[in-house]
Structure formats: C-alpha cells, structure tokens
C-alpha cells in the first residue's frame, strides 16, 4: 500500500482573471475548487491511475470536513487526524498574465496529534511505500521528517521524499527510496545555479552518495533525468503541449513514477510514466487523468 502524508492540506480556490487590479473589485472569468497539499495531490493522481493508496495528515474545522468529503467523492481513501481547533487553510490561486497565490496558514498541530500520526505510521512495514511531501508547518518540529524515517528505519518501508533544502538533505542518511528535487531546488542545495544536464547529473549523483537510492530531477520543459540505485542514468524529453498550470505537476510526476514502477518494475518505464503524468497536469487546469496521461505516453512512445 502507498501512504501519503500531508501536514497542511488546503482547499485551493483557483480563479482566472484577464487582469488583477489591486484596490479594485476583480471578477473571475472562471473558477475551480481543488483539494490540495502535495501529498493529497499524489494520492488523487495515484487514484486516477488506478493505484490504491491512503492519504494521511491533519484536518480541522468545516474546511477540513469539506476536504475529507471531497476526497471521498473522488475515490481517495483517507485516514486523517481531526484537530479540535483551527480550520484547514484555503489557498487562493489567481491565474492571468501572471500567477499569484495567497496561501493560508492552517491550524496548529500539537504534540498529542503528532503522536497519533506516529502511531499510524508505526504500523507500516515492507512492502509499503510512504510519500512525505512539502514543507513543515511552523507548529511542528523542523526535524519531523527525520523522526518519521528514524522510526521506520529497518522495517523495509520505501520512503519517497519531495522537499527542499535542508529538509531534504537531512533525511538522506536514512536512504530514502526516491527523492524528487527539480533542477532549481537541486542547485539550491549546493548553492549554485545548474545550467547543463551534466551539472544536474553531477549534483544528483552527490545526493546519491549521501544516501538517496534513486534521484529523480524534473527540469520543466527540458524533461527529467533519473539516477537509479543500480547505477543507471536515464533521461527523457518533456512531451509537447501548452502549459496551463504549474500547481501539482511535480506531485503528479511522483505519482506517475510510482505507478509506472509498481506496474513494470522498470526504472525506465517509471521515468516515462512520471514525465507523462507530470506533463498531463501541467497541460490541464486540474490534476492529471488517466486519459490525458495515456495520450502523452503515446506521444513519448512515438519519439522512440
């Protein structure tokens, strides 16, 4: 079973405007409500691809109830912890000539609630997969990813980490099954800008040397590369299409990679599926569907 953890879920209210005018009344041309958070995005896309999974995390208030109800209607199985105070955040995503975001803070997560999550995760064992994605709310200890991976160490759970900076670097000693920085995040870890595939590959290899088993690096329109645990190097070009949406594309790549790997056991096919799924979200107003992914897979196969 695949489990995802989202510490700070959200209702994403997405609006399209011709132009955003500060200080004036702005009327939406189009609007969409999604249930967000990086782990939730992974769960939704996995479900769209027919892969069983369960979403874990924290919800609060009437907005939390809406998230849980909406995910259930979408067929996502959940096991959230309900907080007694606060409300699950609402994020406003404004799309026009430029993308503007206003993200809510979310509820505080206390020590007791975190302990409940630990108790749930203690039940995981081989061959389970755990996806840890996104930043850590300020109410939680900054080393919570490390705490989780330390508790699971030696139990055969394959952990996927999609995070930035020190949050990612600090867990490498626990040998995560997969990490997925983008090229900008990867360069940030090393304090430099990466301009070529050779530079990106070298930095990805350095993270492997620190403990990561597989390193998947997304490079936006330039596609993606993968350094696998058997010493293989894989590279794939991005499918062709018009980018409509940047929210959730990286999470979708993670979901597609896992789906491809579980279905085939092949890292090459996992990368192909990841690239198609990430692009399917980027080319859509919402998250990737099976139909859009299949279309892009056919496009990638025609390139071979």
Describe what this molecule looks like in 3D:
- This protein has helices at 38-48, 61-73, 111-121, 144-152, 165-169, 183-189, 197-210, 249-264, 267-282, 290-303; strands spanning 2-6, 10-16, 30-36, 53-60, 77-78, 81-83, 89-95, 99-102, 129-133, 158-162, 178-179, 214-218, 224-227, 233-236.
- It has 304 residues and is of the alpha/beta class.
- It has a single domain (2-18, 27-303), classed as UDP-N-acetylmuramoyl-L-alanine:D-glutamate ligase.
- The strands form two sheets. Strands 1, 4, 5, 6, 9, 10, 11, 12, 13 and 14 form a ten-stranded mixed β-sheet that branches. A four-stranded mixed β-sheet has the order 3-2-7-8.
- A hairpin with a 5-residue loop joins β13 (224-227) and β14 (233-236).
- The longest helix is centred in the last third of the chain and has 16 residues, at 249-264.
- It starts with a strand and ends with a helix.
Kindly name the structural category.
alpha/beta
Q: What is the domain tally?
A: 1
Stated plainly, the CATH topology is called UDP-N-acetylmuramoyl-L-alanine:D-glutamate ligase
Distance between the termini: 32 Å
Number of strands: 14
